[in-house]
Amino acid sequence: MSIHLETELQKHKTSITDLPNLLIGADTVVPTLHGPKRYVNFDNAASTPTFQPITDAVISFLRWYSNVHRGTGFKSQLSSWAFERSRDIVAEFVGADLDKQVVIFTMNATEAINKLSRRFPLERGDIILTTLMEHHSNELPWRRAGKVEHVGLDDDGTISKYDFLSKLAAFGSRIKLVAISGASNVTGYINDLDFLAEKAHDVGAKILVDAAQLAPHRPIDMKPHDAKRWIDYLVFSAHKMYAPFGVGVLVGDRETFEQGDPETVGGGVVDMVTLEEAYWTDLPEKEEAGTPDIVGVVALSKAIRLFQSLGWEAMIQHEAKLTAYALQQLKQIPEVTLYGDIDPANAAQRLGVISFNFGDLPHALVAAILSYEGAIGVRAGCFCAQPYVKSILHMSDEELKALEKQILSRDRSHVPGAVRVSFGLYNTKDEIDRLIEMLHKIASGDYNKGYVLNKEKGEYAPRDFVVEFGEYFGL
Ligand SMILES: Cc1ncc(COP(=O)(O)O)c(C=O)c1O
Questions:
Q1: Model pLDDT for residues 92-107, shown as the tens digit of each residue
Q2: From the CB of 110, is ligand 1 less than 6 Å away?
Q3: Does the model's pTM come out above 0.90?
Q4: Distances (CA, A) of 89 to 119, 387, 395, 431, 432
Q5: CA-to-CA distance for 102 and 85, rounded, in angstroms?
Q6: Measured in angstroms, how far is the CA atom of residue 389 from the centroid of ligand 1?
Q7: Is the CB of 329 under 6 A from ligand 1?
Q8: Which residue in 90, 148, 344, 404 has a CA-CA distance of 20 to 30 Å to 74?
Q9: Atom 12, ligand 1: residue with shortest CA distance
Q10: Phi-psi label, residue 7: left if phi above 0, alpha if psi -120 to 50, beta otherwise
Q11: 149 Rama sector, left if φ>0, alpha if ψ -120 to 50, beta otherwise
């Protein structure tokens, strides 16, 4: 039987230096205004590509693929085994206690938070305490669930511990949940989860950690419930962890999901259905209506095995080196304004997510030049964290009001934001050099002057540069 969940990686230890060669699409050449160039991906905070051992495992598993649970055929039994074994691998990866907690597979982190927001028991007057640093996915679901209060930021863009403690003191036991990101997708700041968890528990609140950014870059330990600093709920996404096959994870207290009706109803969530009644089955199936993404879950396990084979120390060091180097280089370009902690010496205490602006050039134009002329993939805008980005840009209320008016009239030409580069395990110093070289070119005005702004989208593209995507990938 050849499902490589455990054995292969344990036999062959993978090292960070192997990764550029194991990357799927490593040598992909893309069209630019100056002819074809090898693509550089600095958009890993949005989604990562995948690696050969992971796709090998997927292909190998597909030979055995069949729907899970209650199928009697050998392939169904094997698929069920792989699916449930993966659940254990995920639980172990984040230090979940399966006696008290349950691992629920979703589609992504957003779906996981939405699920929790519909299942978390809240009464009128209860408060969900979140922060100004959050991704919209850890903000908007809570607004629908109840009353949301926000912890403010310090001047450097970190979460204000003082404001956090003040809010805890002001609202006390009315706070039922502290919903907070493990790390920022804008500045790469890593939050002090031990401190936040302990203080949240002191007022009787539970804590949800949005680990969409943290999980691919730092070990997470949810800790046993007698540890004072345990994490009650955790979410993350496989597509940011080199397994882009459509899986998210929600880990949480069993009792939250044992009570009440499942969030989504349909096949798989019931023990018995009559025309009058439905009797819900046990967790985790109760919260995984319909056919789950079995292949995606297997791919996630394989990604976790890859992390284990590489080792956190090596992963953290590699990304810190890239981050320190990029910061050093970026700081030497006078047009570049960096946000967050820009000290290269602190690179190991943050993620390799760097946001910046460039002189008076719109962030969307800089991103377009990097793409259309340098074949460098970055992201520009607010990164689904508008309140946070507006805060770190120090926008005034008047500016925000004027902007709101423009955007609502479908003009996104002045949307605030930044350019974001974010590193993955396979990125190299040479690739950063390519970015820096391009930025120097932009600084000296050595770039195409024929970019056209699409006002409605707020995006720039070179005039008369038409690409037939079907020539690169057929459907
Ligand atoms: C901090 C954070 N939370 C949540 C999300 C949403 O993740 P997903 O797109 O997997 O739902 C993201 C995605 O960028 C993120 O960075």
A1: 999 999 999 999 999 9
A2: yes
A3: yes
A4: 25, 35, 44, 33, 34
A5: 14
A6: 15
A7: no
A8: 90
A9: 212
A10: alpha
A11: beta
Nearest to 418 by CA among 316, 342, 318: 342
Pair 257, 283: CB distance under 8 Å: yes
**What pLDDT score does 77 carry?**
96
Describe the crossing of helices 193-202 and 161-171 by its angle, rounded to 10 degrees.
10
% pLDDT > 70, the chain: 97
**Contact call for residues 311 and 328 (beta carbons, < 8 A):** no
- In this structure, what token pair is assigned to residue 461? 């593209």
Residue 451, helix vs strand vs coil: strand
The residue whose CB lies within 8 Å of the most ligand 1 atoms, and thus the one to mutate among 108, 110, 208, 383, is 110
Q: How far is the CA of 137 from the centre of ligand 1 (A)?
A: 6
What is the identity of the amino acid at 182?
A: G
When pLDDT is cut at 50, 70 and 90, the band that residue 229 belongs to is very high
Within 95-139, residue ranges assigned H as helices are 109-119
Place of tokens 């978390």: 120
* DSSP state for residue 189 in the 8-state scheme: B
- The rounded Cα 104 to chain-centroid distance in angstroms is 17
**What average pLDDT does the segment 160-169 reach?**
98
Residue 68: Cβ-neighbour burial (10 angstroms; 0-12, 13-18, 19+): buried
The alpha-carbon radius of gyration of the chain (Å, integer) is 23
Contact 207, 233 (CB under 8 A): yes
- Per-residue confidence (pLDDT) for residue 13, from 0 to 100: 82
